Amino acid sequence: MPREKGFTLVEVLMATLLSMTLFSSTAAAFLAVKSIHMMARHKMQAVQVVRGQIENMKSAQFITLANNTQMTSIDAGPDGIFGSADDIQGVLTTAVQDVLDFDSDGNTTEGFINVDGNGGNDSVAVPVRVSLTWTQRVLGQSRNMSVFADTIIAS
């Protein structure tokens, strides 16, 4: 008896299994790339928040510079489909101290640094570290993220 044209059940099941495997792999790769992209966007925006805080401090009166901690929001873009679900809350910390030891005296907790080289700290230059920390889900795991910048603000 001659064979009828068409696919057997085994061939159809194998093709379906192969298609489902390819589709699920593509979907998993897409979601991973999207998650990593969102992390990069948040990190880039966090850097901008830190830089903005440093610029605000530079424009403030010199004697008002002090340690500060505050909650801040990082908005990862238009609120379109996801609303504010992609926004994260972070802690913006300003530390007036010589964390990087700018004057190479071995003291990283001082609030003023030596800028004229005479061996004593001068009250005209304040070392500042601004950092932003937040928690974000990346590839299904919660990760602690942070960015920081160190600078010297002079009177």
Question: How are the secondary structure elements laid out?
Answer:
Blueprint: H1 9-59, E1 68-74, E2 88-95, E3 125-138, E4 141-154
Antiparallel strand pairs: 1-2, 2-3, 3-4
Distinct helical segment count: 1
Task: Give the low-confidence spans.
Answer: none
Q: Total strand count, please? A: 4
Tell me, briefly, the overall form: rod-shaped
> What percent strand?
25-35%
Distance between the termini: 99 Å
Classification by helices and strands: alpha+beta
Strand order of the largest sheet: 1-2-3-4
Oligomer classification: single chain
Mean pLDDT: 86
Percent in helix: 25-40%
Largest sheet: 4 strands, antiparallel
Number of domains: 1
Helices and strands, in order, run as: HEEEE
Integer-rounded radius of gyration = 27 Å
Description:
- Helices cover 33% and strands 28% of the residues.
- The chain is α+β, with helices and mostly antiparallel strands and 155 residues long.
- The chain has one domain.
- Strands 1-2-3-4 form a four-stranded antiparallel sheet, covered by helices on one side.
- Strand 3 and strand 4 form a beta hairpin.
- The longest helix is centred in the first third of the chain and has 51 residues.
- The mean pLDDT is 86.
